[in-house]
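ok trying again, last paste got cut off:
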Amino acid sequence: MSVYIFRRMLLLVPVLIGVAIIVFGMVRMLPGDPARAMAGLHATPDYVEHVRSEMGLDEPLPVQFGIFFRDLMRGDLGQSTRTRRPVAQEVWPRFINTLQLTAIALAISAVVGIGAGLISATRPYSLYDQVSMVLSLFGVAAPVFWLGLILMLIFSVQLGWLPSAGRGTIWHFILPSVTLAAHSTALIARMTRSSMLEVLKLDYITTARSKGLSENVVNFKHALRNALIPIVTILGLRFGLLLGGAVLTETVFSWPGVGRLMVDSILARDYPVVQGSVLLLAVLFVLINLFVDILYAFLDPQIQYD
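nice, full thing came through this time. structure:
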């Protein structure tokens, strides 16, 4: 296992290099002049050229990338062109806010999705199963921004139960986390149902029942553990996707997260902040997938890593 983890950590290096190249190229394909945006609309051409020279934008692209990659290897993500603060100080507090929101949304998805899928699998084709699958289909199909606005209209505007925007108290987490979790919850519920139905047909489940074990023991101790392997895969992937896809939810609910920071930075042509944000999300996504692979061995002892 330790050798496998070490090899996967080594593979992290070319992945990050590839991400750095893609992000560097895509950011510089954005329309507009970042030097002009930083200098201001009324700046003189000489001052704009001075700003461009300070930012290193007058160098050829290979030279710019070399400087960017050299600083990245030193742990220096650069300086924001908007605030003149280090990128790490700009991104990290916003990233913590997004991480908190994503963790709560993933917890909701796991608890509600696995619970609903488990009950549906143990009562197939019942009224509960049909209602649950219809709601799951709705959760998969409903756009995030539309669902967020509907929840805000009902629970904030009409009922006045929950705050509609911002971040301050625990009540501010409810609407954005539920909105962010809706699609993942529906997906996990359907995956859990499908996986459980497949496992419940296996011979060892029949053997367990023939021994006189209760249905709860058969379902939770024997069937659910093996059914969790594809579900863990979905949870790991969804965590990374939720981190990167929280931008719509953060925009709807004015949540001060890294998604909104990236949007604002793109509009302001703040190259260093965009690059630092994407790289941070990419590293976390790769580490989450590594953790999921390791978790497989604990769920199924038959899985061995050479």
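cool. The longest helix spans residues 87-122. The mean pLDDT is 78.
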